[in-house]
Every structure is written in structure tokens, then in C-alpha cells.
């Protein structure tokens, strides 16, 4: 009944929701630092815009996301026809695989990295070529050396999830330039808005130079719209036209479009979230150093820390204290935890509990 490849795909296991942990463990307060969400949530402007549009729930959304594309095109300096919206950039990875990958083709990606790259490749009958990180980041020399006649897509998560590291400007530019033009290079910039480092490249700058480049961005992270599922791709008009052929009609709901548009207007909220994230990372780093724990410096809103013990065991003990994080075993890093930055009190609660457990 089922395609054989389905048996090789592991289902995505989301972090435990707060309500479930409260119910299972009988806890009144739970701190969730597991899913790289913005602890501030959406801005007040977004909430107001949503309330004003509740009467339109009975009609289909704009399948083209016309108004949002216009606003994004002005912000990004590209044509509206170079933008495609999806139910999170996650959904767009499926479109990319469907457009480029035939059975037996391969796609190159890092390991560990965002797991959907592997999944969408396999669903299309493709072969994932997963290459280990070097110094916790993408080894683009190894990527280049593994390109062959069946390579169709190269996935680069920058910053990388789960390690939080980046490929710097010159290295990424030189790599994209070296890739044959018939291979799609996907640069996933989900955490881009958190970064100030001048060495971090915004790949949208190179869209007019490389017609095989696809850049992914999202409203799930710094804009605080994770539950509404909205992200976007920027690429050549030709690639976007092909992606639109496999995109379901009305894939981005009306409220998500309204919220994203309002979020783009609220630069103060983005600045506030960015400052909180920087402060939270510094707090974590300081405490990890005092505890003698190695951590990977992060450019995202999360950090990987080596607790020098079985991370699943530490995860379970933290859970009993009402704190949800991500154990690193799912990333092949069995002694690491991935911890999302939170509000000041939540960060302190995590550190206090971790010190008690260790």
C-alpha cells in the first residue's frame, strides 16, 4: 500500500507543548525554551490588525498574497514576481524538492541541520547527501567535492539550526559562484534579523547575479508569528513561476497575511526582540562559563550547550522542574542541549534548574 521510501523517513517530533507538560506532571508553571520562538510573541500592532479582520474569515484568502508581496518587494528591493509565500518557509522546501528533484537525483546538505531538507528530498525519491559539520558549521569545501551529475539542490541553513553558526560572506559567495548554474542553491535565512555581524551575508544581495539562488526567510522567528505559519522565498522570476505551479491554492491564510503585513511595519518590536535576544545569549554564555560548560556561540535565538552528560536524562530532569528544552540526541549530539532564549525570568529559571541537576 505504501511507497517504500516512506519507511525511511522519520516523522518530525515537535517539542512538548506547555499544556501537555502541565497536565502530565501536574505543574502550574512551565517554561518553554525548546522551539526557537520569540518570547515576546507578536507586536501589539499585529494583534490589533488581526482583531480588525476577524469578520473576513468566511472568505478565501488572496491566493497570490498580492498586498504582502508588494510590501515585501519594496523592503527587499526585488519584484513582486520574485517572491513566493508559503505556510512557513518549511512548506516552500517541499515546493523546491517537487520542482527540482527526480527519483535518483541527490541533494547536498549539512548534518546536523534543519531536518526537513532530508525529508523533502526523500519524499521525491531523491538521495540526501548529508555532510558532517566542520567546527560546527557548513563545510562548503566538502559540499563542492560531493557535487555530481545527479545533484539538483544544495541546502545551506545560515545561521545553521541547531548549532547557530554562520557561513561568512566571502566563503558563501565564492561557493555559490562555483556551483554549476543548473543546480539550485537554497540559502535558508530564518534567523537573519537577529544578526548584526558585518561578516554575515544576506544572500538576497546576490539574486541578480545568480539565477539558481533561492533565499528563504520567515515570519516565525523574530516577528513572533510561528503559529500562523508564514514564510517566503525570493528567487528569479523563472524559479518563482515554477514553484507556483506546485503551490496549493490559498496555502497562506488571510490572517497570516494580515499579521505579516502589520509585523513588517513595526520595526520597534523587531528591535526590542533583537535586544532581548542579545541580552539573553550573553546571560547564558556567562553562566555556562561559570559552570565550566562548553557552548557554541550562536547567531540565532538559541544556543547549544554541552552538559557533559546524557542530554536526554538532563532533559527529563528539567522537564520535572517545568522547563522544556531540546535534547541534542536528535541532532546526533547526545551530550548537548539546545536552549531557546526567553524572557529574563525564564532564562534565570532554566539556569537555576540546570545548576541543581548538574
Automatic annotation (TrEMBL):
Task: List the Pfam families.
Answer: Aminotran_1_2
What Gene3D superfamilies does its record include?
A: Aspartate Aminotransferase, domain 1, Type I PLP-dependent aspartate aminotransferase-like (Major domain)
GO BP: L-histidine biosynthetic process
The cofactor required is: pyridoxal 5'-phosphate
Query: Which ranges carry the Aminotransferase class I/classII large domain?
Result: 29-346
Task: Name the Enzyme Commission number(s) assigned to this protein.
Answer: 2.6.1.9
| Keywords annotated in UniProt | Amino-acid biosynthesis, Aminotransferase, Histidine biosynthesis, Pyridoxal phosphate, Transferase
For this protein, the parts annotated as crossing the membrane are none
Task: Using the UniProt record, name the top-level EC class of this enzyme in a single word.
Answer: transferase
Q: Which GO terms describe its molecular function?
A: histidinol-phosphate transaminase activity; pyridoxal phosphate binding
Q: Which residues carry this modification: N6-(pyridoxal phosphate)lysine?
A: 221
CDD domains from the UniProt entry: AAT_like
User: Hey, which pathway is this one from?
Assistant: Amino-acid biosynthesis; L-histidine biosynthesis; L-histidine from 5-phospho-alpha-D-ribose 1-diphosphate: step 7/9
Family of the protein in this entry: Belongs to the class-II pyridoxal-phosphate-dependent aminotransferase family. Histidinol-phosphate aminotransferase subfamily.
The name under which this protein is listed is Histidinol-phosphate aminotransferase
Which organism is the protein's source? Caldicellulosiruptor kronotskyensis (strain DSM 18902 / VKM B-2412 / 2002)
The gene it comes from is hisC
